[in-house]
Amino acid sequence: MKITCQSPVNIAVIKYWGKENVELNLPTNGSISVTLSMEHIKTITCVESNEQIKQDSLVLNGELVEIPGRMKLVIDKMRNIAIRCGNRQIKYKSESPLESPADPRHFITIKSRNTFPTAAGLASSASGYSCLVYCLSLLYHLDAYLTRTELSEFARLGSGSSCRSLFPGLVEWHLGDSSSTSVADSICDSWEDLDILVCIVKSEKKKVGSTVGMQQTVKSSALFKHRVEGMPAKLETMKRAIIAKDFETFANLTMADSNQFHAVCLDTFPPIIYLNEDSRWFIEFVHEYNRMAGETAVAYTFDAGPNPVLYMRSKYTGDVVRLLKQLVDVTKFKSIRDFNECVTIVNELGENIPKTNIPVEIIHAKCGAGPSLCKEEGI
Amino acid sequence: MKITCQSPVNIAVIKYWGKENVELNLPTNGSISVTLSMEHIKTITCVESNEQIKQDSLVLNGELVEIPGRMKLVIDKMRNIAIRCGNRQIKYKSESPLESPADPRHFITIKSRNTFPTAAGLASSASGYSCLVYCLSLLYHLDAYLTRTELSEFARLGSGSSCRSLFPGLVEWHLGDSSSTSVADSICDSWEDLDILVCIVKSEKKKVGSTVGMQQTVKSSALFKHRVEGMPAKLETMKRAIIAKDFETFANLTMADSNQFHAVCLDTFPPIIYLNEDSRWFIEFVHEYNRMAGETAVAYTFDAGPNPVLYMRSKYTGDVVRLLKQLVDVTKFKSIRDFNECVTIVNELGENIPKTNIPVEIIHAKCGAGPSLCKEEGI
């Protein structure tokens, strides 16, 4: 019995940084993200289960690797639930293509592949764990007993922010006050007018990983607790902006929160510095573009790495791409739409935004769907 | 009648960033700095006054420039005090070489020169205004009526941090609650065991000047007010460390405060980013060096620019210089001591600190004296 699914990456607009409980991946604050459409960036995972399989195994991007401790935990939790659910009344209609659930006492083979470099600074663990949890939920028909929000607890146990990748559109990971309440939920399913450009300036492996980095911040940053204190109000404002499709507020909060996240990283001791001069170029580009456009047309956000993700109203996307092609060395542009007949909106930028030779790979996405079944090809 | 003086640069270890009152240069928090010895970095100013001079004028680094508004204010304030003091009882012995004070109703010619690039990120306004105020105090014998701390108010009106350059050693600029109480004072006159390496990685002019930048921070950074709240305790800890010559605490607080200052810059909207990849290299170098040395041997601090200033216990200076010469492109090294027979302490650093081709000019200094009379040569 075999299930193959795809699951999206999500990019936070209000960032998760800091664990209240390391073992359970309970965060110090709630967070909000955008789920990216899967044309160019996603994880595909195939889980197979049958009597013949002699032990659990994981093939990641074509390489047989040991199953990480957290993944074992997630698999065991879901198996245990599956065993217990065996006798219960079905609550929902399962989306599983399997007529009956797999036997959770059998071993499984997991094959998983990301369509982007693992260390590109994109949250491969988010798409990865959400994909695994979604696969297992269909394999064991757990979605007949548990809501998507309830399933998101398992993803969170694997990798905090992956709970958000189980939902389409704009998603909140609630702070909660326990493992079962610190779960994800949809704010809205889509934002048609939103375009996303993931700009990869460097694929170098992070010097300080998120898990270690955020614990150092919690421990040593004097400013961090004030960031946390301000979070409930910020999350509320952001949710209202998203529901109202108020791009201006959404964009400004997104940029300010990214800056604040990197500020508390810098306030960590020793400091954690993820932004580099390429990042700074993009920050200045966006502010200058908005100034010339006469409104907040574009927003940037940076996760734990130097790569900017740009959010923009779709009428600006062609114009932004055209300018980027003029100003930086766009080595690859993976689009999902044709921009050839775009109207020029901002003719040129001020001299503070010089032409540079930064090599940038740009991946275009929209606000996308959550995990779904897919074909096994090429894993 | 003519007075020529030299005045030092000071480098804050607890930073001034944010004005409570822009007109009066009253800060949002107190600050502490180290006064640098003047072998290689200083301002030399010559002020001349006589009946023949037909108007006030300023020659800055050889160029006739308009006298800035704030400088006019400082000059006028000091002239007015001089006029009023004319009839009063002398309180202290003046250090002036002039037997009688110049007539404050005469115009003056100011010639001033910095021995370092104005835009190097070093506080040229600090040495500049302190030098001018010191010159005028001797020209008008104001030091017969006012203490150095009282004189520091005039320097502050010109450029906030310049009030600290009127004192030797380690200096506090008190927050105060009025123009006459927000003044500077010595914490201790010297720290024999302290060496300072000013590392100039770039002389490019700042994109965001301090005055504009700090007002943007006050206005837009959510974290800034929490930095200010934490200041009184931090200043107390720092003062105690300085008095006890506790380098460990001094160094860690210095680094943490520099990081926090740059954190609130990054939390500003739009963000202000002074640190670049060269800065980051030095930050990582220092933490790695300290790790290898087994104690906090070196500290970094960055003002509103990318240039690191390193403080260290003097037994490490030769070793740090030797390593820097191996690892970066030291284009110039202006020393005040011979390091040829230095003992190697840290043999080599981990692979996280790669050899790079960053061009760096290094200027060596000690904790130094305040302003003093000097010869006019070469202004």
From TrEMBL, chains A, B:
InterPro entries in the record: GHMP_kinase_C_sf, Mev_decarb, Mev_diP_decarb, MVD-like_N, Mvd1_C, Ribosomal_Su5_D2-typ_SF, Ribsml_uS5_D2-typ_fold_subgr
Pathway assigned in UniProt: Isoprenoid biosynthesis; isopentenyl diphosphate biosynthesis via mevalonate pathway; isopentenyl diphosphate from (R)-mevalonate: step 3/3
Pfam families (alphabetical): MDD_C (PF18376), MVD-like_N (PF22700)
Domain of life of the source: Eukaryota
EC number: 4.1.1.33
Entry annotated with the keyword Ribosomal protein: yes
Keywords: ATP-binding, Lipid biosynthesis, Lipid metabolism, Lyase, Nucleotide-binding, Ribonucleoprotein, Ribosomal protein, Steroid biosynthesis, Steroid metabolism, Sterol biosynthesis, Sterol metabolism
Any one GO MF annotation of this record: diphosphomevalonate decarboxylase activity
GO biological process: ergosterol biosynthetic process; isopentenyl diphosphate biosynthetic process, mevalonate pathway
Keyword Manganese on entry: no
Top EC category: lyase
Catalytic reactions of this protein: (R)-5-diphosphomevalonate + ATP = isopentenyl diphosphate + ADP + phosphate + CO2
All residue ranges annotated as the Diphosphomevalonate decarboxylase-like N-terminal domain in the record: 8-184
Stored PANTHER family: DIPHOSPHOMEVALONATE DECARBOXYLASE
Protein name as catalogued: Diphosphomevalonate decarboxylase
